[in-house]
Amino acid sequence: MADKMNNDELSLELFIVLARAYNSVVAHSSRDIQSHGLNTTEFGVLDLLYHKGPQPLQKIGEKVLISSGNITYVADKLQKKNLLVRKASPDDRRVIFADLTDEGRDFFGKIFPNHQQVLVHAVEGLNEDEKKQAVELLKKLGLSAEESFKAGR
């Protein structure tokens, strides 16, 4: 019974430490994103389009983890800032693609390298081997949690 209690307590401690570490790293990212007049969702959409090219609006929501209604709102805001343009699909007029404008591509191309350095700085508490180990362990944890969630546990 004592081992079970220790494992339970360790699981709770892991959750707390993981949440605090996540919040601390995200704080670095959020501050940098906000300094450019964006919110994290807008940044995520620009990042996706910059690195992956034009995307159907409905797929953007899936990839940056926002609802389809919210992606329309975010796309409208980015379009008003002249960073994003909507284009009808040549194959299916029901599908609308989002793409960066030239201004959007230039803007993101200028801010992304510094943002990447902000993230590098945020995780500099670990050396290269520790980062590799953390990536491996967190992937394992995430996949396991996802499986047990889908199984209803």
TrEMBL record:
One of its GO terms (molecular function) is DNA-binding transcription factor activity. Pfam families: MarR. InterPro entries: HTH_MarR-typ, MarR/SlyA-like, WH-like_DNA-bd_sf, WH_DNA-bd_sf. Gene3D superfamilies: Winged helix-like DNA-binding domain superfamily/Winged helix DNA-binding domain (1.10.10.10). One of its GO terms (biological process) is response to stress. The keyword Transcription regulation applies. It comes from the Bacteria. SMART domains: HTH_MARR. Keywords: DNA-binding, Transcription, Transcription regulation. Residues 11-143 form the HTH marR-type domain. SUPFAM superfamilies: Winged helix' DNA-binding domain. This is HTH-type transcriptional regulator MhqR. It comes from Paenibacillus albilobatus. The gene is mhqR.
